[in-house]
Structure to design on (165 residues):
C-alpha cells in the first residue's frame, strides 16, 4: 500500500488499518514526522518534500488518498494492473475515471457518514488499545473556531479534538 499523508487525521488511522502482518506500507509524510508512521506500522516513510513517491513505489495494490489533485493523478502511475486508488477527496477525474486512469486500474470514491454504531465501534477499538488516536490539539467546543483555523493549516499531525462537557 502507498498511504498519502500517513500522519494526517485520516492517514494515521489508515496506516493502522493495514494491520500487523498485513500489506507492506509506504507512507508519505514530512521529513520531521517519520517516527509516528513507523510506530503505527509503516515499513517505509517517504518525505514528500524531498522525494517523489512515484520513484519509491511501483506495482502498488491500493493507494488510499486523502490529498487529491495532482497527488491522485500521479498515484495512478504507481498502481499495479487491477490496483485501486481509494480517495476521500475530489480527484478532478472521478467523473471521467475510465478515460483518465491508467488502463486496468480502479477508482473508489468514499464519502464517510458517521453514525452512532460506527463511532462506538471505533471508540471501542481505541479503548481496547487496538487503534491509536494521535491528538494534535484539543479545544473546548466553545473554541471550535480555533480548531478550524488550526485544521485549515493542513500541517497538523493526527486528529484535532473538540471536548464537550
Ligand atoms: N470523504 C470523507 O468522508 C472524508 C472524511 C474525512 C476527511 N475527509 C477529507 O480528507 C482530507 C484529509 O483530512 P485529514 O484530516 O486527514 O487531513 P489533515 O490531518 O489536515 O492532513 C494534514 C497532514 O497532511 C500532510 N500533508 C500535506 N500535504 C501532503 C503531501 N503532499 N504529501 C503527504 N502528506 C501531506 C501534512 O504533513 P506536513 O505537516 O508534513 O506537511 C499533515 O500531517 C480533508 O480534505 C478532509 O476534508 C473526507
Amino acid at each position: 500500500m502507498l498511504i498519502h499523508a500517513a500522519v494526517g487525521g485520516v492517514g494515521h488511522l489508515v496506516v493502522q488499518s493495514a494491520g500487523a502482518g498485513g500489506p507492506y506500507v509506504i507512507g508519505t509524510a514530512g521529513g520531521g514526522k517519520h517516527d509516528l508512521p513507523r510506530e503505527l506500522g509503516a515499513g517505509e516513510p517517504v518525505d514528500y518534500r524531498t522525494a517523489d513517491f512515484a520513484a519509491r513505489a511501483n506495482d502498488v495494490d491500493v493507494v488510499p488518498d486523502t490529498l487529491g489533485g495532482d497527488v491522485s493523478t500521479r498515484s495512478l502511475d504507481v498502481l499495479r494492473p487491477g490496483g485501486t486508488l481509494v480517495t476521500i477527496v475530489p480527484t478532478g477525474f472521478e467523473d471521467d475515471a475510465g478515460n483518465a486512469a491508467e488502463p486496468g486500474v480502479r477508482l473508489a470514491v468514499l464519502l464517510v457518514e458517521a453514525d452512532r454504531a460506527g463511532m462506538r465501534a471505533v471508540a471501542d477499538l481505541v479503548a481496547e488499545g487496538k487503534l491509536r488516536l494521535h491528538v494534535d490539539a484539543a479545544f473546548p467546543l466553545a473554541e471550535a473556531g480555533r480548531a478550524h483555523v488550526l485544521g485549515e493549516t493542513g500541517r497538523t499531525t493526527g486528529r484535532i479534538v473538540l471536548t464537550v462537557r
Remarks:
- Residues 134-165 form one domain.
- The radius of gyration is 16 Å.
- The pocket of NAP is lined by residues 4-5, 7-11, 28-30, 33, 48, 66-67, 71, 88-89, 110-112, 151, 154-157 (CB under 6 Å).
- The CA atoms of residues 54 and 95 lie 24 Å apart.
